[in-house]
Specification:
The chain is an alpha/beta fold. It is 39% helix and 20% strand. The strands form two sheets. Strands 1, 2, 3, 4, 5, 6, 7, 8 and 9 form a nine-stranded mixed beta sheet that branches. The two termini are 27 Å apart.
């Protein structure tokens, strides 16, 4: 089939949705499909770069405690119609389809089978609450709906009720196999690793407070911080004013170096305060065989199992964070057991397995439309045969 993967964020800038789209693109091609990525431009990019098609201009805006993107063009309608007429996609797969305005324009004019994946989770969304009436006509144009977790499904179903298939994010297992740790940090000092944006919902300041207590209590450890963000100045000020030693601000790193940092770490910590639909970084830690301490929040519970791959602690609870990290630092056998369990569990989240589930779901949606005589006009591929098992149609 010819498939268009639509990301409302500026591809390939870093971010969970773009990383998801990139891996889905690679693995759908490996499965024999003809795939394009539709995104916006943010600077000097060309309109078309190989399999990446750019429509409109993207602007960064604060949203959900993080940073999102809005896309605009003074001639969006005509641009979108030109691309859709030229490409004739069998399937358009929208990621966060209600983020203005690229996805909405494509959905408006699409004559393809429209599938959407919802990635986000929040306790309450003012944009959805006040915009759901206007967005309902776009939601009706979706033939299939995927959520990356039960938390994401619960969140989006509150505003746009329907049948959602839960298909999680994936991890590239090969990137975390046979990785050599950094010699610089491979000594007798234990390494605590954090990977993520420096923003309030990621809970970095709680980790810094916990690290201060661990050092005060005599633990020989260092803290490796990967990422940047609006809280970086506050984090650096906390470290400087408390005269904390052993804290390394490493900034952004390449995917290859990130894998090496996971291999170097003794414990990975994710102290997020909430609003996480899925812990992709937890998958990376598991694939690396690294023991985990993370917050006990909805988006993480579908990734790790309590006491098997991770110790879960209440969010915003510094004392509980200290106790969990201290337990792992003091018990090498427990760390090894959790690391081995993580590697085993990560296999089911391999991108090969996740892409197969997405591909099967495309087939389910197409067969349903065909049975109803409602296949869109741009769908010109053959109807995929039903799989041997029916698990793919389970929308629980």
């Amino acid at each position: 089939m010819k498939i268009g993967l639509v990301t409302p964020y500026i591809y390939p800038l870093p971010g969970g949705v773009n990383a998801h789209v990139a891996k889905l693109y690679e693995n759908l091609i490996e499965r024999g499909h003809d795939v394009r990525i539709l995104s916006s431009t943010h600077g000097p990019q060309k309109r078309s770069e190989g399999d990446v098609i750019r429509l409109g201009y993207g602007f960064s805006v604060p949203t959900n405690g993080s940073v999102g993107t809005l896309t605009f063009s003074h001639r969006y309608g005509s641009l979108v119609q030109e691309v859709l007429e030229e490409e004739r996609f069998d399937v358009l797969h929208f990621h966060e389809p209600f983020v203005p305005f690229l996805s909405l324009q494509l959905l408006r004019f699409s004559e393809s089978v429209n599938v959407a994946t919802f990635h986000a989770y929040a306790g309450w969304s003012p944009s959805y609450e006040f915009g759901k009436r206007a967005l309902k006509r776009f939601a009706r144009r979706l033939h299939g709906r995927i959520a990356v977790s039960a938390a994401a499904r619960h969140f989006i179903d509150r505003y746009f009720p329907g049948d959602y298939k839960v298909i999680p994010n994936g991890v590239d297992l090969r990137s975390y196999q046979g990785v050599v740790p950094f010699a610089r940090w491979s000594d007798s000092t234990a390494n605590i690793l954090y990977v993520g944006r420096f923003e309030s919902r990621k809970g970095l300041l709680y980790l810094l407070k916990a690290y201060r207590v661990l050092r005060r209590d005599g633990f020989d450890c260092r803290l490796l911080l990967i990422g940047t963000g609006p809280q970086e100045r506050e984090a650096r000020r906390y470290v400087a004013t408390r005269r904390l030693t052993g804290v390394e601000f490493l900034g952004r790193v390449s995917d290859e170096d990130k894998a090496r940092f996971f291999a170097t770490a003794d414990v990975y910590v994710s102290p997020a305060t909430g609003q996480e639909s899925f812990g992709i970084v937890l998958l990376e830690a598991m694939a690396s065989g690294t023991a985990i301490v993370c917050s006990d929040i909805h988006g993480y519970k579908g990734v790790v199992r309590r006491g098997e791959q991770a110790l879960l602690v209440p969010p915003r609870n510094t004392d509980a964070l200290v106790a969990a990290i201290a337990r792992l630092l003091g018990d090498g056998e427990l760390r090894a057991r959790m690391g081995a369990s993580g590697r085993e569990r990560a296999i089911q989240f391999s991108w090969e397995n996740i892409t197969a589930k997405v591909d099967d779901y495309y087939g389910f949606v197409i067969r349903r439309l065909a049975a109803q005589g409602q296949l869109p006009t741009d769908f010109r591929a053959g109807v995929p045969p039903a799989p041997r098992t029916a698990s793919v149609v389970d929308s629980r």
